[in-house]
Amino acid sequence: MSSAVRWAQARADGPQEVITREIIQSALAALSEEMFATMRKTAMSSVIYEVLDFGVAVTDADGQLASSGAGIPSFVGMLDPAVKAVIAKHGAAGFEDGDIFITNDPFGGGVSHLNDVALVMPVFFDGEVVAWTANKGHWMDLGGMAPGGNSPQAKELHQEGLLFPEIRVFEGHKPLPGVLDIIAANSRLPRQALGDFWAGVSALRMGACRIVQLCNRYGADSFLSAVRDYLDLGERQVRRALRCLPQGCFTATDSLDDGRPLQVAIEVDGDFFTVDLRGNPPQDPGPLNASYQATLVSAQAMFKSLVCPQGVANAGTFRPLRVICDPGSLFAAERPAAVGFYYENKIRVSDLMWKALAPVLPECPGVGHFCSVCATMIGFADAEGRLRSFIEPEVGGWGATAERDGQNAQFSSSHGNTYNCPVEVNEARNGMHVECYALNPEPGGAGCHRGGKGIELRYRLTRPSGWVTAAYTRSRTPPWPLAGGQAGTVNRLSIIRHTGEVEDCFNASALPLGRGDVVRVRTGGGGGYGDPKQRRREAVLRDVRDGYISVEEAVGTYGADAVAVRAAEKRYHSSG
Fold it and tell me: Of 208, 237, 266, which closes a domain?
């Protein structure tokens, strides 16, 4: 908030009211982080407690996002639709203190895919709902045609697992045993599913407790007023920043790996930011679909990062954003479309937006990155015959900017503030031997500033048998460059059998593994910015010395002197 706005508000409300309002708003952010920590420390799945594949939020009484915790950016944007769907379905009958609802329906309050389960809870004070707490996390298995639910072979939603259509799971403060029994009966990992459920319940209750404490201390009226002002603050910050962007209409095109064209048109007019995705392909016959709400939250995340990355993120922040899609298209699929790999679809929305605006922003924020979650799911039977499985999103290379090289081994723009699963956890708890975790040496992404490197990761199965499921995109169409740079490299999955045979896969659906088989993941590198021949000589020699580029690349692509390059190569090998 600017000093002028603060002063005008202080004169209207008085300094005490302004201070109280800001204390409550800061407390909202703090309690969201406390909810986040609670869920992380109590969850049973490594994808939640290590990778942080979840989100938490607080909404106002009407379901408008008020504050959120760290984690998956789009999970946060998915939680206010979950609350609104529950209100729309059950609001007429009213709510009771202690009620908790569960939803994962992608075409209702679930937004994404069936594994991402949202829990929401009304927060009461003096008999009235003053807010809602909510969270969403990736549950490892809820049934479906393949272990883990997600399968590249799925043709409809019902093949992907159990649906929760905004149903009550706690009535008052009492759990409904029948719902919990259904969860356990439909999951191949019942203990894990119920453990993650109770972690979500704990986080909801923690947030509700803190909200009630705020209302007790400052009064419900002050709390509600602070929330309304917080949403208005989010809008003011974004609208002010929006006027500083280049105004006009900006377009970009790309293609899926199978050649289907993609397009976007973005109009910035000072008051609104319109993302027009009409004219894109019809919904996919397989699971590469996103609901409209999933597309919307992907656009929200990129809109926020492009327009006002440092401001607050709440429902007010997104009031100037408009997203237009054709119903029944890839970006606004309709029931009963399969959506298991929705994340590989929605990330293309943010990438298209990025590509459209990168050339016209005063400082290019970066060119194309590996643009895939590269989620890799591996499972096996333990010594007692029980199914064990884990899922891990992979890191990859980011594109160069107008000022510096791209970042190595970072999560995609879709996955945000998350972490890789440590090697020690994968080996001790997830039954794998990680025999290689290194930067991907494949050439690509050359430029005056070069793209960042992806990784090579090898999981070796130590059990008698197992399976792997994955579906990477950007496996044929590489990340885009700018200003004379070169394209990055693609994402690839291979199985190296214990016999030495190598199978390259564009996707895998519970593909059988044997003891000693290796799942090899190679993620792409980012695109380059500027003519490679303009890269500083010292930087090229340093890249050779550090093993980022080969002698052939340095001489052939960057035009470096062969004698100096070979001397740098000798220093690299002698230090290694």
Answer: 237
Report how far residue 145's alpha carbon sits from residue 189's, in angstroms, rounded to the nearest whole number: 15
Alpha helices in 281-411 (DSSP H): 292-307, 342-357
Instruction: Give the phi and the psi of residue 371 in degrees, each rounded to 5.
Output: 50, 50
Question: What is the average per-residue pLDDT within 535-549?
Answer: 92
| Rounded distance between C-alpha atoms, residue 541 and residue 547, angstroms | 10
First to last CA, the chain: 52
The distance of Cα 561 from the centroid of its chain, to the nearest Å, equals 43
- Residue 20 placed within a domain: yes
**185/41 Cα distance (integer angstroms):** 26
Burial class from Cβ neighbours inside 10 Å (0-12, 13-18, 19+) for residue 38 reads buried
Gyration radius from the chain CA atoms: 25
- Contact status, residue 302 vs residue 353, Cβ threshold 8 Å: yes
Asked if residue 344 is part of any domain, the answer here is no
Q: How many domains, in total, are found in the chain?
A: 3
How many residues does the structure list for the chain? 576
Give the domain range for residue 572. Answer: 536-576
Q: Which tokens sit at 399?
A: 């594109």
- Indicate whether 144 and 196 sit together in one domain: yes
For residue 386, give the DSSP letter. Answer: -
Supply the pLDDT for residue 291.
96
Cβ count within 10 A of residue 3: 7
Q: How confident is the model at residue 383 (pLDDT cuts 50, 70, 90)?
A: confident
Q: Which amino acid is at 42?
A: T
What's the CA gap between 331 and 571, in Å, rounded?
50
The two structure tokens encoding residue 278: 């009409």
pLDDT digits (tens, 9 = 90+) for 115-140: 999 999 999 999 999 999 999 999 99
In angstroms, rounded to a whole number, what is the distance separating the alpha carbons of residues 44 and 64? Answer: 30
359 prior amide bond cis, ω within 30:
no
Q: Strand, coil or helix: what is 215?
A: helix
Angle at 360 between CA 487 and CA 342, to 5 degrees: 55
Q: Where do we find the tokens 């740098």? A: 568
Domain-ending residue, one of 237, 253, 270: 237
Give CA–CA dist 14/356, Å, rounded: 45
Residue 115 located in a structural domain: yes
Backbone angles phi, psi at 394, to 5 degrees: -110, 155
Lookup: tokens for 16: 């005490």
Burial 513-546 (b: 16+ CB within 10 A, else e): beeebbbbbbbbbbbbbbbbeebeeeebbebbbe
Please give the average per-residue pLDDT across 40-56, as a whole number. 92
Residue 526 sits in the same domain as residue 576: no
292 within domain boundaries: no
Full-model pTM: 0.91
Tokens 């309050």 correspond to what residue? 109
- Classified as helix, coil or strand, 102 is strand
495 bridge partner residues: 503, 519
Under a CB-based contact definition with an 8 Å cutoff, are residues 308 and 243 in contact?
no
- Does residue 556 share a domain with residue 462? no
The string of DSSP letters for 175-191 reads E-HHHHHHHHHH-SSHH
Residues 454, 500 within the same domain? yes
Residue 156: exposure state from Cβ atoms within 10 A (0-12, 13-18, ≥19): middle
Specify which of 9-23, 92-106, 308-322 reaches the highest per-range mean pLDDT: 92-106
